[in-house]
Amino acid sequence: MAELIKTGLSDGYAAAEKSPAKAFGDYVSNTGKSVGSALEKSPAEHIDTTFMDVSFVCWLEGDFIHILTLPAQNLESIKARRSRVIPSREELYKAVDADDLASVRLILDESDRNVNAAYDENGTTPLMLACRHGNADMARLLLAKGADAAAVDAGGRPVMEYIGKRSQETSRALRALILGTAAEKKLLLPLSWEEISVPDRHDFTASASYPSILPVENLTDGNPRTAWAGKTGDEVWLFINGGASSMSIINGYGKTPALFKANNRVKRLAVSVWTAAHFAGSVSEISRMFDVARLTPDHVLDLEDSGAEQSFPLPFNWESMRKSGAEALAGLVKRKDFKDRELTYSYFVLRAEPLEVYRGTKYDDTCISELKAGGTWLHEARLHGDWLAVSGSDAQSMTFSEPWSRRAFSSYAAGKPFLTGTWSMENGGLLIKAGGGTRRYALALEEGDSLLKLTGADGKLEVYKRRSR
């Protein structure tokens, strides 16, 4: 049996070829030391033994016995240190969960072997706990001690998804820590999802991650005299049509020239495209919840200090984004927490974050009057149902299936099928694939979604009225 014993304030290892308990007994016999407590057989236990001049703290790890030696001049110091030496997974987990940074620091200074050890049934690591509690200092310490920024729990949730939005400053700091560590260590982080809430009154048009000073629906109301107002660094979400190639913005608070100057205007705006998914039951009393995941990096726009409409191209590859979005959703629905849930809607959203502003003369609120991309966004579910022809159509009626199903389309004339195929929305327009071809229409919903107007590529107008349900 090989013995690798180090003295002083260092770890010693007794290699056990057969029995760790026998190895420790042999070590004690060979050194002639007396043992004050018996060796436990459970590897989760820490075995304290006290000798005349030194204190030994021993524990088992696989086929090795670890032995830490401490001088016995200061008994109280020995007891305090011994109580924290090489803690179990539970001790580190509970210290992190309690936001006890001092204890966690002591634990990790003695040993960082449990820094990535999950304790609960969900497979939650200490770093995930720190992110859940919004403790950036704790997360920084754990990362410095080797915490895995790319870890996932038993349900498939990565570390980034444990970062909440209780504090914008804290959330930003935690994201920067995780992303910075991943970049430094060349880690590929798993795709992460976050949740946004869309109040029912917004008709799914826009959302804000943090409480707004002026409501976020003002971004999409078509009125440049109203505005969304928030803080620099706040993020807003705009539902957009797939295939959108450009976006436009009316900067500032355009109600009056005085209000325009009094409030901040956006100087630099970061935009990115995300996929958004709504599952049955993901609702509150006043809103629907969407799970969103990033599909593109940020694209930064430089805005003029003007209240006139400004337009910009969106340099995103929609073919690639559609593929990435489909793969992201396929992975999400396989997760433990999602596999039994019904996916009802899937859309694209534009995330916009003011990075820098033109300072207002009176207020520190950052304002945007209008924001749109790819034309007016149309909620696909608004087309679902049966429509009766009013004018301009060769068919007498048509039916759009639920968008989360197969998007089946059919039209009828003289009581018989006229065209059958599929339908989809792209860049604010309607695409119908039927009869071996694709028909594109500009569309408008009026009179409370009861009247549908379709304008074909040839300029022909077709008008339909929703069949009463």
Average of per-residue pLDDT values? 82
Total number of beta strands: 24
In the CATH hierarchy, the third-tier topology of the largest domain is known as Jelly Rolls
CATH architecture level-2 label of the largest domain: Sandwich
Given helix and strand content, the structural type is: alpha+beta
Inertia-based shape: globular
Instruction: Measure the end-to-end span.
Output: 84 Å
Q: What are the key terms here?
A:
single chain, 469 residues, Jelly Rolls, 4 domains, 11-stranded mixed β-sheet, 8-stranded antiparallel beta barrel, 24 strands, 35% strand, globular, disordered N terminus
Report what the structure shows.
- The chain is an alpha+beta fold.
- 20% of the residues lie in helices and 35% in strands.
- It folds into 4 domains: 3-82, no CATH class; 89-190, Alpha Horseshoe (Serine Threonine Protein Phosphatase 5, Tetratricopeptide repeat); 199-373, Jelly Rolls (Sandwich), CATH 2.60.120; 380-466, Lipocalin, CATH 2.40.128.270.
- Strands 6, 7, 8, 9, 10, 11, 12, 13, 14, 15 and 16 form an 11-stranded mixed beta sheet that branches. Strands 17-18-19-20-21-22-23-24 form an 8-stranded antiparallel beta barrel. A 5-stranded antiparallel beta sheet has the order 1-2-5-4-3.
- Strand 1 and strand 2 form a beta hairpin.
- Helix 3 runs parallel beside helix 5 (126-132), helix 5 (126-132) packs antiparallel against helix 6 (136-144) and helix 6 packs parallel to helix 7.
Task: Please outline what is shown here.
With 469 residues, the protein is of the alpha+beta class. It contains 9 helices and 24 strands.
